[in-house]
Amino acid sequence: MKLMTRIAPIAGAALLLASCGAGNEPDVQRAPQFAATSSATTGTSAAAYEELVQRIYVAYFGRPADPAGLAFWAEQYRGAGAPTSVAELSLAYDRNPGFRMFVDVFGTSQESQDLYPGDNRAFITAIYQNLFNRAPDDAGLAYWAGLIDAGALTRPIAALAIMGGALGSDSSIIANKVSVARSFSTSLDTPERTASYSGMSANQVVRSMLGTVGLDTDVISFSTTINLTIVNLVEAAQPQPAGFKLSSGMTGNGKGTIDPAGGTYAKGAIVTVKAEPDFYSDFRGWTGRSGCAGGLGGCRLTMEQDYFMEARFERTRFATSFDTTYTAVRGGAKNCTFTLRWTNTRIDFELDAAYEMTMRVRGTFQPSSADPNCNSNPASFDKSFPVASYSKNGFTHSVQLQGGAVAGEYMTVSVMSLPGPQAGVNLFAPIGITLEYKGSEALSGRSELFQTLTRNPVP
What we know:
By secondary structure, the chain is of the alpha+beta class. 34% of the residues lie in helices and 29% in strands. Strands 8, 9, 10, 11, 15 and 17 form a six-stranded antiparallel β-sheet that branches. Strands 3-1-7-5 form a four-stranded mixed β-sheet, with no helix packed on it. Strands 12-13-14-16 form a four-stranded antiparallel β-sheet, with no helix packed on it.
């Protein structure tokens, strides 16, 4: 192919860029003119070539140059006396076959193969995204992909031609991206930081960072994002252990389960821990990881370090509270009828360290009657009694509250529990309570209630 026939497509490509989607300003009529000859010499500063290399990396790979690549290619271009601008390099590509290898080599790299496995339309779409954060319009996509399909352009020189012909806001976006790329490369100022920017995974992280840079980006304040990205790269580059260990223990009575079992897990593995209290205990939480409730529903852990999870179980408590009023008749010498009112009455069942059960009865009762023989002051009580035999299948227990409102009389509380509907939820439910007022005179009258016990009530 003749020299001039190769120049025409590139120059024409730049000229058409405004109408093919590289620029957004309708009043711009033409692309920048390329110089007829290169102004570069071997005396040009290395910094000028580093700027050129940085632009090539942004255009073709969508990321900043790594320090090794930046230094290597800057020296290669400088030694060859290459132009220092993308526009001049695009023109020199056609006029000087010796420069072509310095551009086309980017298209033969492994990174290029991994980034652009699709057809030329997919490639042009990716380049527009790298440069302008958007897809090309249909005309621009067809134009650039057509030139590559026809063999008039290679992929690398097409990327540079698109960059070199950018106008208006698109040109400003590129300037911001190149500025951020330059700052990023400069910030790789320690061996540890430099080494962290290596490999496809690190490249993709930084490519994503640069993809957030747009027309309105404040490139000065963006330094915070640059530094955070590098910190994350350094952390990710640290040698990772073969696995993280998860072990568990407990206080109280119950058990813990780990799913999946194994004890050692890869970084990022999801593990579920569950706490299962025994029938007379309740789960109170895990120590070892804040925010991990565990319990019957389980707690999901993302393995990022070694964990020791300790489940805490406590002895359970059940209670019920009620008020009731009933009529009683006293026979014998003090024959009368009175009303007995129970208020603020509460019955608790508590388990001690040896899992022996205690029934605690609290409340106030007051006999009241128009007959002075029956009327008396209120009497309050708070007494605890051991429950000799109990199980999850229920029990029956009666106690006397000594010291009634009238001398020689007392209250009787009888409790009969039925089996709970679900182990570990309600120990005894429902529960039947019989209240009687007894003494030296014949009495009749009682209150019978059915209550449901609340597990772990407020004391």
